[in-house]
Amino acid sequence: MYIFVLLGLLLGVPVVWKFREKAGTGKGGAVLLCVLYSVCSVIAAMLFAHLESLISSGEGANGGAISTYGIYFFGSLMMFGIAKGMKWKTAGVMDLYALYAMPSFFMLRINCLRAGCCGGLPMFDTGLNWPTRETELIFYAVMFVIFLQLLRKDKRQGQLFPILMVSYGCFRFVNQWFRDDGTAGFHMSHGWSILCAVIGVSLLLELRAQAAKKENKRTKKH
Prior knowledge:
Elements: H1 2-18, H2 27-57, H3 69-86, H4 90-115, H5 132-152, H6 160-176, H7 188-221
Helix pairs in contact: 1-2, 1-4, 2-3, 2-4, 3-4, 4-5, 5-6, 6-7
């Protein structure tokens, strides 16, 4: 698993390097940013796995357990605080984090295919299972391409990570119903998905409000 995580993180490096000016960093800063992205992502994913285990069973997760929700919730907060502390361009740092994280998510699902975990429920009597891992791979591949185009065109500044939170929250909420996790009905992941989408929408509304205020100030000056 760790090899797949490392591969995912390395795949995000060229994106950060190419668009480093959007984060307000030079070459040295871009290297540091990639290291911070990686460290925060791994720590956040492991911490959230422990949180999930404590909630569900009252015991911590086994060593090496990770949860991708941790990157959405804890990792984003860590990087936001670091960006503020380093006086980097916060919007750019978070936009790049959205793109940097997606190859990691993608490779984690590749690892799921290898390990045979996180599969889908049987599809009636067809002998096939719902492709939960495959659909998530497609989701991240498509979102990565879309976000890369938005970043190139300098659109949606600071909004990419919130958009990712909303998109994944909605996608995972639906996909979770078809996931074979040994439980039936509403699962804890449904709750995290709702929270992820709600936080993402809240951030987008806040960013929109801030942009409107700036526009009003410009209008008054002119």
